[in-house]
Amino acid sequence: MTETAQRPTLEAVAARAGVSRATVSRVVNGGDGVREPLVERVRQAVEELGYVPNQAARSLVTKRHDAIAVVVAEPETRVFTDPFFALQLRGISKELTAHDNQLVLLLTEGRDDHARVGRYLAGGHVDGALVFSLHLDDPLPGLIQRAGIPTVFGGRPGWSDGRSGVLYVDSDNRGGAREAVRHLVGLGRTRIAHITGALDQTSAVDRLDGFRDVRADADPRLIAQGDFTPAGGERAMRELLDRCPDLDAVFAANDLTAAGALRVLRERGRRVPEDVAVIGFDDMLPVAEQTDPPLTTVRQDIEEMGRLMARLLLRGLRRPTAGETRAGAADVPSSMVRPTTLVLRASA
Questions:
Q1: Is the separation of the CB atoms in 177 and 252 below 8 Å?
Q2: CA distance 337 to 134
Q3: CA atoms within 13 A on the CB side of 82
Q4: Residue 155 CA: distances (Å) to CA of 73, 74, 244
Q5: Are 151 and 126 in contact (CB under 8 A)?
Q6: Worst-scoring range by mean pLDDT, 47-56, 57-66, 85-94, 216-225?
Q7: Which of 140, 181, 188, 329 is 20 to 30 A (C-alpha) from 164?
């Protein structure tokens, strides 16, 4: 049998620092009104004793949990196989860690999970939520609104119910798509096809709109619906080749879709880029640099988007200083749309 070491208390820290318990509480919980020499004494005592604040007690004082829910509106089989989600989660995790916040990951497999997530968010367990990969008929926005917690969305929300004050971080999906298709036109390609993403997501709709901005007169048979997965890319590429065997270029809605399309083109004996040029979207290096040939694609900084989502939420949660309150100068967060760039490799 081993004895469990007694956990240091606020009283022990106060005794070591030679200050009152109330002073220690204010310092530990980030309160104002403590002179800097006393703050340093308390911090030194905390370090010497190895004091760890009781989170439940701290939450009663600060009204904060230092925990953020990250809600991905996809099943776990998708989240843990698609590198897009890993990159975005890594960016979110880095930013939350830098500000001493915990990440609580919530996934949705079906309607029962939506209700469970809604109950959890409404239960006062977290300070806010980061939500991405929403679908147009997703009930999550309504559940989150009813939960009444600060939220930042990854990607432009697709609802049109007049809701104001919605914060999101997105990429210029439409502009990036235009740049990709213009590049194919500049290569002399005339039969340019597009494999869409899941059209119940705004990113896929925006990329389709970007394609149509450049190819407004495109043959409708040159557009095939995918779902942002390699299997969807394979299926759509077969449809396109069956319908339009003379196509000479493909703009795919993301890199995974493009990887699936490349496999089918190879099976059908089409040389890339000699016979068919291919461009993707995302520039996920584990995918784009390992396709055969390496993939020309539109780059969005997925990890940075995750960081910006977390930063935007934490900025909104930050309590303004006394000076900011008096001056009315508290930083008001606003949505962000990030630029994209075309990365040229061997496929186009």
A1: no
A2: 17
A3: 23
A4: 12, 14, 33
A5: no
A6: 57-66
A7: 329
